[in-house]
């Protein structure tokens, strides 16, 4: 997808995740299949974040955690390294990492880490740096490359601290790469049968 459209969609995903994070929830399953671009009331490219089935409550230690028995639940292609090490270890920065995997996929058409088995994917996520957009042949603004590199950091302490920080960076990028209502409508008209 074009950079401007991806940035437009990601800003909306950040809004949805911020609402969850502000309530003390972590989604834990942010991936392309859980992000729907819709037409709503004549407005094109309205994002819906779906499937909060793996959500984790951070504020209530008595909340039943479905990962308490160390089962990896989710899709390894889109999981942060700390979640692969310890499935119950998730905070908002795990969703931030996952958002970077979604951005990479939307911009390149390929997963950031690809391999034939889940074991090999886990190894790559844990040990290899995420590929840049430039390495995938995508011309993206340097600010977007820098943001994704931060979001992909293996050390969550070096990732953006909040989804609001990610959204602010995306909004700054959108200022020079706008996706207008006319752009969205034209996209939908071109692909709708």
Which tags fit this structure?
globular, 7 helices, Transferase(Phosphotransferase), domain 1, mainly alpha, two-stranded antiparallel sheet, 9% strand, 4 strands, 193 residues
Structural features, described:
With 193 residues, this protein is mostly helical. Helix content is 45%, strand content 9%. The protein is built from 7 helices and 4 strands; from the N terminus they run αββββαααααα. It has a single domain (3-60, 70-191), classed as Orthogonal Bundle (Transferase(Phosphotransferase), domain 1), CATH 1.10.510. A hairpin with a 2-residue loop joins β2 (35-40) and β3 (43-49). The two termini are 19 Å apart.
- Beta-strand percentage? 5-15%
Helix content: 40-55%
Strand line-up of the largest beta sheet: 1-4
Main sheet overview? 2 strands, antiparallel
CATH T-level fold name: Transferase(Phosphotransferase), domain 1
Per CATH, the architecture is Orthogonal Bundle
Rounded to the nearest angstrom, the distance between the terminal CA atoms is 19 Å
Number of strands: 4
CATH first level: Mainly Alpha
User: Could you name the ranges where pLDDT drops below 50 across 5 or more consecutive residues?
Assistant: 67-71
Question: How many domains, in number, for the residues?
Answer: 1
Tell the overall outline: globular
**What's the name of the CATH homologous superfamily?**
Transferase(Phosphotransferase) domain 1
Could you tell me the mean pLDDT?
88
Write a concise synopsis of the structure shown:
By secondary structure, the protein is mainly alpha-helical. The chain has seven helices and four strands, in the order H-E-E-E-E-H-H-H-H-H-H. It has a two-stranded antiparallel ribbon. Strands 2-3 form a two-stranded antiparallel sheet.
